[in-house]
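Worked Example 4.2. Consider the chain below.
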Amino acid sequence: MDFNHIPVFLQEALNALQLKSDGFYVDCTAGGGGHSSPIAKTIKEGRLLAIDRDPQAIEVLKERLAAYPSVELVLDNFTNIKQILSQRSIKGLDGILVDLGVSSHQLDSPERGFSYHNDAPLDMRMGMEGIRAADIINTRSQKDLQKILYQYGEEKFAPSISRAIVRQRQLKPIETTLELVEVIKSAIPAAARREGGHPARRTFQALRIEVNGELERLQETLRDMFDVLYPGGRLVVISFHSLEDRIVKNTFKEFCTGCVCPRDFPICVCGQKPQGRLPHKLIKPDAKQIQENPRSRSAKLRTIEKLQ
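Applying the procedure from the previous section yields the following structure tokens:
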């Protein structure tokens, strides 16, 4: 199975993790092993849990990471991080890496239904189970569809697109990616279709997020991850759109916030102390990275370190 993926911020992520040869790390979205492989090479006396919810990814990783006895593969959703660690009696971690993007394999495999460039069943399930994008498109109310497109796609034409979807499905269910693309195009003014990239991009993003529940538990999961770090441990998150990054940014800010007493108080009475610190500023891809991997254009890397 071809499962190629160009890891975004490879060296930056490795630097941010501050890998120790005997450290204990988790790659929450192992994918094709782009980040897991160099981590495994570095932690010769350590341990790595390589997690992915995609069974196709796990099958590929069995071969690609077979040479590293320190690696354990886990077919699961990283939102279950505490349960995953508890099942293995793991008390803490030195570092966690989370790449929130869709893998190149998933995008480039037409049968997975993530791409608006190829005709395929309208699926979009990262874990290959549960509700499909087609189920949402063909069963949700116009009001619900509009909310999904607004909230997760920031699509300004959400009202007209959702109305067009409902009209079309009354004639025939929308079952393929290109069927949906045509409906979207019909609902967007011609002038707008010529600007700002592919007209279906925001709708497909919104559906993918809804199908996979990508934002529902992100803040809670980030808190769980921070909680299981050893003091000095680091959580590194790579995000790809503003909704994700906003949650990461605000959650990290929460961990780094100290005293919240009014400034005119002579002494602190709230007792609140920072739990973490930001070891570096937000990292964005440079021109060379974008040229080598256009999908990295919107990527952002943030890191937080748990204080002693």
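Strands lie at 24-27, 47-52, 71-75, 93-99, 229-239, 276-277, 300-306. The mean pLDDT is 91. Compare this with Example 4.1 before moving on.
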